[in-house]
Design goal:
mainly alpha
Length: 77
């Protein structure tokens, strides 16, 4: 017996999985004494590779890019 999943069924499964992951991440951050935004700032600073930190503007621009957006053509302007 084969089943063809509809787009709605696939989307529903992905949404359910996203809620599970979000809950697990929230629990993990809470156990570490972090809020999600604090983790985002720390991970952005870590990815920047700049040991002296980033200016507020550079941090803002870096935070808007995904980890895959490394090319110079990626812009938030």
């Amino acid at each position: 017996m084969t089943t063809n999943a509809t787009c709605a069924e696939i989307f529903g499964r992905i949404s359910h999985l996203a809620r599970i992951i979000d809950r697990e991440l929230s629990d993990f951050f809470r156990a570490q004494g972090l809020q999600r935004w604090e983790y985002e700032v720390l991970s952005t600073l870590r990815r920047s590779g700049n040991e002296s930190g980033l200016s507020a503007g550079a941090l803002y621009k870096a935070a808007l890019r995904t980890s895959g957006a490394k090319s110079p053509t990626a812009s938030t302007d």
